[in-house]
Amino acid sequence: MTLTGKTLHVARWEFVERVKTKSFLIGLFLTPAIMAVFAVGPALLQDSLADADAVVVAVHDGTGVVVDSLVTEFARGPMLENGTPKYRIERIEAAGRSLARVKADIDTALLRGAISAAVVIPREALDSNIVEYRSTNVSDIESITRIERKVSDIVSAYRIAHAGLDPAKVDVLTRATSMRTVRVTETGEEESGFLESFGLSYVFLIMLMIMILSSGQMLVRSLVEEKSNRIVEILVSSCSPMDLMFGKIIGISMLGIVQVLFWSLIGILLVVAAELSNLPLDNIWLMLLYFMLGFLLYAAVFVAFGSLASTEQEAQQITGYLTMLLMLPIVIAFMATQSPNNPVLVVLTMIPLLTPQMMFMRLPITTPPAWEIALSLLILVLSIIAVTWVAGKIFRTGILLTGKRPSLDEIVRWLRS
Amino acid sequence: MLQVERLRKDFTGVRAVDDVSFAVRPGQIFGLIGPNGAGKSTTIRMIMDIIQPDAGTVHIDGQPMHERLKNMIGYLPEERGLYRKNKLGNVIAYFGALKGLRPADARERARPLLEQFSLMEYERRNVEELSKGNQQKVQFVIAVLHQPRLLVLDELFSGLDPVNQVLMKDALLRLKDDNRAIIFSTHQMEQAEKLCDELLMIDHGRGVLHGSPAAIKQQFGRNALHVEFSGDGAFLRALPGVRAVDLARNYAEIELEPDARTNDLIEAMLPRLELHKVARIEPSLQSIFIDVATTDARELRS
Known about the structure:
The structure holds two protein chains of two kinds. Helix content of chain A is 66%, strand content 7%. By secondary structure, chain A is an alpha/beta fold. In chain A, a hairpin with a 2-residue loop joins strand 5 and strand 6. The two termini of chain A are 14 Å apart. By secondary structure, chain B is an alpha/beta fold. Chain B is 33% helix and 29% strand. Chain B is built from nine helices and 14 strands. In chain B, a hairpin with a 3-residue loop joins strand 12 (242-247) and strand 13. The A-B interface holds A 2, 4, 6, 9-10, 13, 17, 21, 225-226, 229-240, 400 and B 45, 48-51, 67, 70-71, 73, 75, 77, 79-86, 90, 94-95, 97-99, 103, 142.
């Protein structure tokens, strides 16, 4: 296995010619844009939909203790953008009508659109604890929970006062305790939440997946193009298959790195903007190392399988299978959030195809013992060497093959030769 | 320059190349001829180290094929291969770099060649904008760019119009004068006859004819005459010493027994026909090719 300067020419070609393409530039800017839309979009949409108009809520209060407080409470907030209360409470008196009659009238008003919702509090509500929310639209969860909580608070306060207790004192006595999570590290203690702990893990997981997928696809595509155009004959008669394979891996990895660096830059700017200062960055270099090694391992797997495809269709099939292979570690890695030091996870960490993903989940939470890190790195590096060797053997014969896909027997024969 | 010895290649059950040997000297144009599927391209791919022979050796300047030697070989593959979505100049620079040139030098060297084939205007355009014939010329430019000492050209002339064929032929002869060794494969016998110093005909994977075009023709020379006349030539078939006659209204191609004499035939014709022309027929390489290929096929079947 000898590499020459030609490796670099191949790498340069793959990098320079691809970095200029429209699809690469579009992917570079579009991916973060799409992610941003997914992250911020729903919230923006909700805001713009929700606060447009005041919600008119009719309240029929059979107990006579709720509605006054409800009016004062909602007058205080929440507010619309123009500074008026979002919820306008309209009292509905029985005025001699039966409860059924009141409901029927309310329903007519609802169907006419004169009011958006109605709350019916029957006389026995203080005992039965049941009030009714009537509306043509019962999916406005935000309004329903808000009204439910207010009514519930008012009823509780009434009961407490009725029992001769001081509501303010009861409030103090029944206040819930909240728990602050503190991560203890060798450099001291830090306050840390779920987002800070696992946010970084997810970023690494997803980045690795995107980088493997986009680079892998490019790799397989370029191989299929060269095969179907027979460019590969000129290439192989000019340089060794190893030059070609490593050149491609290097060139396309560089492309992936440019992509990830660009996205990371955006990410860092966002983190700075969001003032998330206490990200667990102590193991960041180790995580980056696992990232690169993981990428190389998967790249070699892609090259080996990719060199077997000779049509665009086969290429898609192969990348499809490999994508599934990529989902597996992610699913398993999510389990690691539950119990990062479970012995099963330690075993899974030693499986090279899972190592980077498992470490992404474990490293931000707790630093695994040194022997685990050393052993997993050793296994990872050895398997990169082994897979690359196998990939080289398959690649050497595979790239010149057109038409029939080789059988397993044939591939085994190539490995022996 | 190039020695090929006893090459053999089997593809699942079929012997594609069987015991082929030949040598090419500098300043020589060596023709590989044979029908489609005879094994020409497979032989060439083994020379180019694209596929591995099952047996036999390829030596260049006495050394077995090696990565370092690849820089002194230029190759034009049978199925043309160029990147389609990239600029012509960049593609040339890349392929030049893979043959050991600096990319900038490759660009510089390509200019006069592109000029010569009137392709200069395409240098900054995508390859896919070129016509088939122009892509062919580009492929040739790529093959000769690094001034290889050995050129391997698979079906060089296919897909070229007559004007470009002449252009290509001139380029080839200049390379020969420059003392480069050239192998070129074709099934166009006329081209082979005009250009090659030495020929090897391959059929069913085996070398069946080997030598200079003149020597091969001599070996296959037939005793045959082309006669133009006025009158009724039907009697010709009955003459002694005549083996076969291809008769038309005003001419005939007459094949004689090997020992029959031309003068006897003319004497027999003189009283009955008004003769305009009598000429000995030189067998064309084409007819030898067809002869050998068909008898070869018959032998294989029997």
